[in-house]
Specification:
Keywords: Cytoplasm, Lyase, Magnesium, Manganese, Metal-binding, Plant defense. It comes from Panicum miliaceum (Proso millet). The chain folds into two domains: 232 residues, Farnesyl Diphosphate Synthase (Orthogonal Bundle), CATH 1.10.600.10; 168 residues, Glycosyltransferase, CATH 1.50.10.130. The protein has 20 helices and no strands. Helix 6 packs antiparallel against helix 7 and helix 17 crosses helix 18. The longest helix is centred in the middle third of the chain and has 33 residues. It is globular and about 60 Å long. The N terminus is likely disordered.
């Protein structure tokens, strides 16, 4: 007899909301970053001077590239090595040249790379060109694994209605999975990494740290670019460690206020706002008003979730749930915190826009909330917690938890598609704003990829070590 998995009822969801308090592990780092010792001043000066020389050599390469394949290969290399931000104007000019120029539209690898880079940089190029690479059976004709991988990565810059890209992802994923075990180690690592996280969704600095040793093994590598990438990463690492030292000092001071918990925390928060306003100065201190307003939104939303928990209320639909839980994932607050500390590009109009709760930020918050809930629902229902979006979906559609997980993964993909469409849509905001929001979505994707790493931070200890402790080797 075939057993049918049980579907969810409201009592099932409510019974999962037990009142035991969750526990969290202590920090793994202690005062590690407080003891950080930077390199000697002469060594740092040499690193900085050498990096400047290499940077200008690479600039000549970017300006001098004049063939479409070479231009695309150079740009994707600089992006993956974290160097493209030094050549924004030159790359913009080259991509405009690529967009306006004829190219070999019979080369699937070239077509995929062109599509990827143009869409990533805001060009709303149509995906119809990929239809010509399908055979009579509907399969894509790809000569090799590199081409499959290029198509796979390009397809993830899809929007709603890009059917050919949806089909490309299904086809390339199955093909890449089939050949993975037979590939040589370096290419196998690239494919395995892509199957876990497509290129567009990777955190920039983490991709840089991961790609440097891969690029080092490539026969066609450019030694000047490689040396600059290593130096640049190591210099950034020095800066990050200095900042982490300052943050750790601040956290130690804050910890002294915790015994009375809420009262002292609130007073410390007010002091933090005051110190931020002082540091911003008279021309930018107004920005803190927006962060305060969004923190009020966060408090109200958290209070509503507490009420749900205490009353054992389960929202009737996942949309009702998201109206509150999108706020408690703190996406708007994180974005505002970032904007507050930025330069003159952040205007009052941008911060006013943020308080309109724009769809771009909603997409990011949806990705973060749903990704969080997939990884944390079972654990949280053991403790004192309200029903998650997973439980809500189970109740709304009378489905099993596993089925709810799969459908919510589809909703996450829909949010990525919507985000890409908004990213490609011209607005009054500088393009940098949309890029920052997409970066936050990438971070959420990484944090909740395997587990709830925000809660169980020991699961990303190796990543933290790779980024902030171990320099790249020459």
């Amino acid at each position: 007899m075939v057993l049918t998995p049980p579907v969810c009822s409201v009592n099932d969801v409510r019974q999962g909301q037990r009142k035991d308090r969750p526990t969290f592990h202590p920090s793994l780092w202690g005062d590690f970053f407080l003891t950080y010792q930077p390199p000697t001043a002469p060594k740092r000066a040499y690193m900085t001077e050498r990096a400047e020389v290499l940077k200008e050599e690479v600039r000549k390469m970017v300006k001098g590239a004049n063939e479409i394949p070479n231009i695309l290969d150079l740009i994707i290399t600089l992006q993956r090595l974290g160097l493209d931000n030094y050549y924004e104007n030159e790359i913009d000019e080259q991509l405009l040249f690529v967009y306006d120029s004829d190219y070999d539209d019979r080369d699937l690898n070239l077509v995929s790379l062109r599509f990827y880079l143009l869409r990533k940089n805001g060009y709303d190029v149509p995906p119809d060109v990929f239809k010509s690479f399908k055979d009579n059976e509907g399969n894509f004709v790809a000569d090799n694994t590199k081409t499959l991988l290029s198509l796979y990565n390009a397809a993830y810059l899809r929007t709603q209605g890009d059917k050919v890209l949806d089909e490309a992802i299904i086809f390339t994923r199955s093909q890449l999975e089939a050949v993975l075990d037979s590939l040589e180690s370096t290419l196998a690592d690239e494919v395995s990494h892509a199957l876990q996280t497509p290129l567009f969704r990777r955190i920039r600095i983490l991709e840089t740290r991961t790609y440097i040793p891969i690029y080092k093994k490539e026969a066609a590598r450019n030694e000047v670019i490689l040396e600059f990438a290593k130096l640049n990463f190591n210099l950034l690492q020095l800066l990050y460690c200095e900042e982490l030292k300052t943050v750790t000092l601040c956290e130690e001071n804050a910890a002294e206020l915790l015994p009375e918990y809420m009262k002292d925390f609130y007073l410390h928060l007010l002091k933090t706002f005051d110190s931020c306003e002082d540091e911003l100065g008279p021309n930018k201190s107004f920005r803190m008003f927006y962060l305060k307003e969004l923190l009020k939104v966060l408090v109200r939303a958290n209070s509503q979730e507490i009420k749900w928990r205490d009353e054992q209320y389960v929202p009737k639909t996942i949309n009702e749930h998201l109206e509150i839980s999108r706020a408690t994932v703190e996406g708007f607050q994180v974005a505002c915190s970032s904007f507050v500390g930025m330069g003159d590009i952040i205007t009052k109009e941008i911060l006013d826009w943020l308080l309109t709760y724009p769809e771009l930020l909603k997409c990011f918050s949806t990705i973060a909330r749903l990704s969080n809930d997939i990884k944390s629902t079972e654990r949280e229902q053991i403790g004192a917690h309200h029903a998650s979006t997973v439980g809500c979906y189970m109740l709304q559609h009378r489905t099993t938890m596993n089925d709810a997980y799969e459908r919510i993964k589809d909703l996450i993909e829909d949010a990525w598609k919507d985000m890409m469409k908004l990213f490609l849509t011209p607005t009054e905001q500088p393009k940098l704003i949309a890029k920052i929001v997409v970066d936050f979505a990438r971070t959420a994707d990484y944090i909740y990829k395997k587990t709830d790493a925000f809660t169980f931070s020991h699961t990303i200890k190796d990543m933290i070590t790779m980024l902030y402790v171990e320099p790249t080797l020459f």
